[in-house]
Amino acid sequence: MSSTSIGIRIPTHLHERLESYVTQTHLTKTEVILNALAQYLGANEEVPLSQRVAALEAQMLELKGLVKSSLTSDL
């Protein structure tokens, strides 16, 4: 598959979340952005299964953290 390079500007808070996400999942920024773009455009079949699984694992970690913080804040 051929590829094209693009440059984008994103808000600082999104970049910080991206950095945190790539640290958790051990994916590259490019892989995360390509995965997100493919999902947004409905082209999930183009994203390798390993990347999709890693993305789901990261989402589960994030959800676990949210649930845990929600439960502890309710006490």
From TrEMBL:
* Entry-linked InterPro entries: Arc_rbn_hlx_hlx, Ribbon_hlx_hlx
One Gene Ontology BP term is: regulation of DNA-templated transcription
Q: Which domain of life is it from?
A: Bacteria
According to its UniProt entry, this protein's organism is Aetokthonos hydrillicola Thurmond2011
Q: What is this protein called?
A: Ribbon-helix-helix domain-containing protein
